[in-house]
Amino acid sequence: MPDESLHLSVVNSLLERHKGSAGALLPILHDIQERIGYIPDTAVPEIAHALNQSQAEVRGVISFYHDFRTAPPARHILRLCRAESCKSRGAEELAAQLRERLQLDDHGSSADGSISLRPVYCLGACACSPALELDGQVHARLSAERLDALLDACREDA
Amino acid sequence: MPAFYVSGDSVARAVGAEEVVVALITHARGRVVPLEIKRTSSRGLYWLEPLLEVDTPQGRFGFGPLTDADVPSVLEALKGDPSSHPLALGLVEELPYLKTQQRLLFARAGITQPLHIDDYRDHGGFEGLKRAIAIGGEQTATEVFDSGLRGRGGAAFPAGIKWRTVRATEAAQKYIVCNADEGDSGTFADRMLMEGDPFLLIEGMAIAGITVGATYGYIYVRSEYPDAVAILRNALEIARSNGYLGANVGGSGLAFDMDVRVGAGAYICGEETALLDSLEGKRGVVRAKPPIPALKGLFGQPTLVHNVLTLASVPLILAKGAQFYRDYGMGRSLGTMPFQLAGNIRHGGLVERAFGLTLRELVEDYGGGTASGRPLKAAQVGGPLGAWVPPSQFDTPLDYEAFAGIGAMLGHGGVVVADDTLDMAQMARFALQFCAEESCGKCTPCRIGSTRGVEVIDRMLAAPDQGGRDEQAIILKDLCDTMQYGSLCALGGMAPFPVVSALKYFPADFGLQASEAEQ
Ligand SMILES: Cc1cc2nc3c(=O)[nH]c(=O)nc-3n(C[C@H](O)[C@H](O)[C@H](O)COP(=O)(O)O)c2cc1C
Ligand code: SF4
Ligand code: FES
């Protein structure tokens, strides 16, 4: 685990930027996660203090939303869509392929730290199912071969 | 050289539109006249994406679906007879899929460039705002009321009633909130509209703001739509610098401004009161109603909450008048609805038509049947909480009341088609698992019932004999009843719909005989 206190200056400058904006907790958390990669525990007291809330309230919000991470992710984040439209076009077979190749559960990071896996429920690409999102980029009309090629590319840049 | 058009829509890019553009640029290198490539919104003819269109004297001529490897041969064909290319589509606006649509809301789809405000103005943009300013707030609210517009987010509540309520409520601060959480699987019309025609949504919100007396608004966009967020943020700045937002909206003397907020991966934040809590920086927990948001919404102030499509329908209603809009549709479902064809479908895409065509016309005539070519099994209409509709009911007209009549719903207009290989017991299990994962936790039938439901289905599927399965089927139906009638909001209240419909129409998938399942 890196020294999280190093992140404090980033956190404080982001808090400063949102000062005075109503109900800004989600934008603050998004900004912190975008800059640091996750929400470090050391950020919680700072956020709570800045927003005049309890730390429990802030932690409650972080844990409620699926998007917020409290530990650093792997180099790549892959989110396979598991909702109905993609299921009707073979998403479960792709999920099995991912589990097999990465030796992972649907939620988790591969041992070599290259890929974090997460399910997502709809990417709005349902007219071209099945779909996934890799590092913020959507890929649709997936096939087993294309999924393999995407995984190969993730592994190669180690 | 004529102009080329390729969509910049995120899903067009997800199937290779960017590669097509790169290939175009590469192959055009060294030409005397450089290529002009315009990045438009998507037509919504997704099965033809990446779609390349080229200006001709008769109109835009299309090729698709292309890969980068097809680009050289397309450029070659353009020197002679373009129709000779195997991927030639002819004039895009003559394609029956598009030609037979009634595109009111998506009139500019595939035609304009999303962030070009002049493009927007040249195609009717800001005419609604102009008229709203001219006729004033009272008359504007009346137009919305008279148009018969109903909320497109799912509940289909008459928009005009909400407008009048918020307008009539005195408060120092009121808000407009656009629900762009579009969590329903099988839907993408909000995404297309935000990415493709952002000024339309901004215009609709500005009209709403000056009409009901709200000076500030938020668009709450799900985090799965980063392109929509970026485009909206850009569009807001452009609209502001052109005087459509700010202290003097479109010269009206009235103030309205707004911001974009991003969700964080919680389906329940599409429910309007959970959304409001999320906007306030809290956990997205559903509020008990009353009070309704129109009286006490965001930060306790009167708030008009509408779906993207509802707000985006307003400029046209103002520009053309309520009667024009009412002339589309049937019964109490007036205007047009952008239906979204998804799942195992040959021609997936957006079909905007007046209410009243049948599900069969949509799935068979537009959709062309299943993509796999296998027999059609069912379609789930209206998102993850919608019922599975069997082909025997496909002649039901797409109308809110007709769908309610068969125990289904139109919701946000998404249609997910399944062929005979999809296991409905697994889909029923998924509906409950999804409910368990996304429950806000406020009420027991939803929070606990959904988890129990998954266990019951697992036990049913594992039961060694018919008797064991029947027993679990009875428990499951009881549980669904409890959820349906004992939940505070529609997540727990409607998650039973896909389960009960799957049981009723596809008992064999659960290892049940038809007669038991019918009980
Ligand atoms: C579980 C649940 C999820 C919902 N998700 C959405 C959504 O993603 N988008 C939306 O516009 N409405 C959604 N709604 C409906 C909203 O609560 C609300 O009715 C709507 O925003 C009102 O806008 P309208 O009048 O324009 O439809 C959802 C409702 C429930 C119960
Ligand atoms: S039904 Fe579910 S999501 Fe809705 S309020 Fe109850 S617990 Fe929350
Ligand atoms: S269901 Fe997978 S993209 Fe919509």
Automatic annotation (TrEMBL), chain A:
Keywords attached to this entry: 2Fe-2S, Iron, Iron-sulfur, Metal-binding
Binding, [2Fe-2S] cluster: C81, C86, C122, C126
The UniProt record lists the keyword rRNA-binding: no
PANTHER family hit by this protein: NADH-QUINONE OXIDOREDUCTASE, E SUBUNIT, POTENTIAL NAD-REDUCING HYDROGENASE SUBUNIT
Obligatory cofactor(s): [2Fe-2S] cluster
Co-factor binding comment: Binds 1 [2Fe-2S] cluster.
NCBIfam families: PRK05988.1
Protein name (Swiss-Prot/TrEMBL): NADH-quinone oxidoreductase subunit E
Record carries keyword Chaperone: no
Species this protein is from: Pseudomonas reinekei
UniProtKB/TrEMBL annotation, chain B:
Family annotation (Gene3D superfamilies): 3.10.20.600, 6.10.250.1450, NADH-ubiquinone oxidoreductase 51kDa subunit, NADH-ubiquinone oxidoreductase 51kDa subunit, iron-sulphur binding domain
Pfam families: Complex1_51K (PF01512), NADH_4Fe-4S (PF10589)
Keyword Iron-sulfur attributed: yes
CDD domains with a match to the protein in the record: TRX_Fd_FDH_beta
UniProt cross-references to SUPFAM superfamilies, sorted A to Z: Nqo1 FMN-binding domain-like, Nqo1 middle domain-like, Nqo1C-terminal domain-like
InterPro entries: NADH-UbQ_OxRdtase_51kDa_CS, Nuo51_FMN-bd, Nuo51_FMN-bd_sf, Nuop51_4Fe4S-bd, Nuop51_4Fe4S-bd_sf
All copies of domain NADH-ubiquinone oxidoreductase 51kDa subunit iron-sulphur binding, residue ranges: 425-471
GO molecular function, one term: 4 iron, 4 sulfur cluster binding
Name of this chain's protein: NADH-quinone oxidoreductase subunit F
